[in-house]
Amino acid sequence: MLKSHVKFHSTAGKRLVLIVDDEQVNRELLGYIVSSDFDVLYAASGEEAMQVLKENAQHISLVLLDLMMPGMDGFDVMRIMRNDSAYEGIPILVLTNEEKAEVESLRLGASDFIIKPFRNPEVIIARMQKAIELFEDRHIIESTEREPLTGLFIKNFFYRYAEQYDQYHTDTPMDAIALDISHFHLINEMYGRDAGDGVLKHLGAFLKSVIERANGMACRLEADKFLMYLPADSESYEDMFVKINEHFNSYSDINVRVRGGIYKNVDKSLGIERRFDRATQAANQIKNDFTKSFSYYDITKHEREIYAERLINEFDAAIENHQFQIYYQPKYNVQGEEPVLASAEALVRWKHPDLGMVSPGMFIPLFEKNGLIQKLDYYIWAKAAEDVRRWKETFGKSVPVSVNVSRVDLYHHDLVTYLQKILAENSLSTKEMYLEITESAYTENADQIVYVIDLLRKKGFQIEMDDFGTGYSSLNMLADIPVDILKLDMKFVQNLRTNQKQETLVRLIMDIARYLNMRVVAEGVEEKSQVDFLRSVGCYVIQGYYFSKPLPEEEFAQLLKEQ
Ligand code: C2E
Ligand code: CA
Ligand code: CA
Question: Are residues 69 and 209 in the same domain?
Fold first, then answer.
């Protein structure tokens, strides 16, 4: 319930005022001037004024106070009134004949002053009314802008004041902090609402002491969620969170854990709420990590998100403007004396007009998450098929090209017909386009995936299991999985030299592949020693920088021509 500070005294709607002056003429004259608009009480001394106030504080809307009085003077009365919450809703107008006293009386909390002798009745009345209205308004605002339990700002006022603060302190770097209490609902359930309120009050009081020290502001956002806006680095957050949690442990047996997120040195071009969203995000990061009580908002993570968002937004335009291009990385057969170009892998490249070459490692996982990958892959496969046809037409020969098939593609019902369609359109057979499917796809929803892959194989497609060894396919599973080629993950190759066990493992994989009638391709091969080893264990198809990086179409075509 809000306490009302609007006090109508009489049924006529008049407010009650108290005139304090030791000179009877002044009391009577002033009383006469204001009586048409106000009901009036009188006091002839400071002592009497306090007595009247004590009895009528609830009803008095304004005090007209003479400063110069014998005994307790006007300054004394003001000092008492401004330090007693019983009188906080009552404005004071000072009656004075020396202008010097104005400053001091305003400092002590007077709203305004009236110069003696009284000359202009309308001005006096107007000043009285204005003082009362201002006070009532201010108290209405104060009682709604603060939240009753903790006395902290409520959300809207907090945001508004924070914005105002920024306007006047454009050069002050600020930190946004979000705090909440872990499992607060449990505290309520286990110890009752009063105990819960007690915890909130305590946290509120603690935050108040922080903002007073740091010159910041705080609010209770809702339930157990609090926000603080502080000049940057005014607090050691490390200490602050240790102290908050110590504070609670010393105050009761209830196990309270306060958790916080800090968005340091906020970007003031962001809306105020966004800044606190970031602080909240940081707090949520440690939701389940009980070893931490606070964490910082990671701006680089945010920048990555912005970048990702941009890539997604520009995807359609990039397809239209042919920004996606295919590079071909040759695979060589090393069984004979001379390595022979055996096939190639189609790898997508995004030549972005502003961002330059964007790596597929950046955008493929992104597009897999939101489904754009299908459109991209279908586009790439069609382009690859066209390239193979053109090579055949121009050079009278071609090599099979492997395209990457994302696991997401495997869920599209038209996958098989689409592949068949692009082959048909370019008069190609399934012997000219292989499909690379990453090993981890098999473990995800094995039955569905195995079904689709089986279907593809029945239609004649060759399936390569990409990144073999990184997923979790057990040997057991391998026996049932429909694949033609195992594509050893690069890590096997790259660890060959440093790790003796890797050699043994690769030998073992070769044995199993032979046993299961699968061929093995090695990728990421960069050195001659790796080629030699792979050859010695019977792995004859090799892809990697040792032979060639992925090449633009023209360069790859040149290679084909030379063969
Ligand atoms: P991946 O299929 O395993 O492709 C092999 C990656 O290793 C390629 O990176 C290739 O450039 C790189 N590489 C080749 N030889 C070497 C070497 O000797 N040393 C090293 N360190 N790296 C080598 P890239 O082109 O950046 O592709 C990254 C991944 O993006 C691919 O991994 C594949 O999973 C995915 N990807 C690429 N193009 C497509 C596509 O058209 N569709 C789909 N769905 N995924 C694609
Ligand atoms: Ca691949
Ligand atoms: Ca791979």
Answer: no
Say yes or no to pLDDT of 3 above 50: no
Q: For ligand 1, is residue 348 a contact (CB within 6 Å)?
A: yes
The CATH number covering residue 236 comes to: 3.30.70.270
What confidence score (pLDDT) does residue 456 get?
Answer: 95
Q: Is 377 in the pocket of ligand 1 (CB under 6 A)?
A: yes
CA distance 420 to 401: 15
Question: Is 5 inside any structural domain?
Answer: no
Nearest CA owner, ligand 1 atom 20 = 524
Half-sphere exposure of 306 (CA within 13 A, CB side): 6
Q: Is the pTM of the predicted complex or chain greater than 0.85? A: no
Please provide the average confidence, as pLDDT, over all residues in the chain.
89
- Contacts (Cβ under 8 Å, ≥6 apart) of 72: 45, 46, 47, 49, 50
The answer to whether residues 349 and 498 belong to one domain is yes
Greatest C-alpha distance within the chain: 126
Res. 2 pLDDT band, cuts 50 70 90: very low
Model confidence over 150-165: pLDDT tens digits? 989 999 889 988 988 8
Distances (CA, A) of 290 to 63, 182, 287, 387, 526: 57, 10, 8, 56, 45
Tell me the C-alpha distance between 501 and 102, whole Å: 91
Half-sphere exposure for 158 (CA within 13 Å, toward CB): 26
Residue 542 belongs to domain spanning: 308-562
Please, is 107 exposed, middle or buried when counting C-beta atoms within 10 Å of its C-beta (0-12, 13-18, 19+)? exposed
Q: Does residue 196 share a domain with residue 291?
A: yes
Segment among 80-84, 225-229, 415-419, 455-459 with least mean pLDDT? 80-84
Say whether both 469 and 333 belong to one domain.
yes
Burial class (CB in 10 A: 0-12, 13-18, 19+), 483: buried
Q: pLDDT tens across 455-514, in order?
A: 999 999 999 999 988 766 666 677 777 899 999 999 889 888 777 888 888 998 899 899
Considering only CA atoms, which residue is closest to atom 17 of ligand 1? Answer: 524
Does residue 544's CB lie within 6 angstroms of at least one atom of ligand 1? Answer: yes
For ligand 1, is residue 471 a contact (CB within 6 Å)?
no
Q: Is 329 in the pocket of ligand 1 (CB under 6 A)?
A: yes
Q: Which of 323, 351, 359, 364 to mutate to test the pocket of ligand 1 (most atoms within 8 A of CB)?
A: 364
| 358 ligand 1 Cβ < 6 A | no
**Residue 45: which of 10, 20, 19, 81 has the closest Cα?**
20
Please tell me if the CB atom of residue 402 comes closer than 6 angstroms to any atom of ligand 1: no
Q: How many CB atoms lie within 10 A of CB 175?
A: 24
Hey, how many other C-beta atoms are within 10 angstroms of the C-beta on 122? 8
Where does the pLDDT of residue 7 fall: very low under 50, low under 70, confident under 90, or very high at 90 and above? low
- Ligand 1 pocket test target in 367, 402, 404 with most atoms within 8 Å of CB: 404
Number of domains in the chain: 3
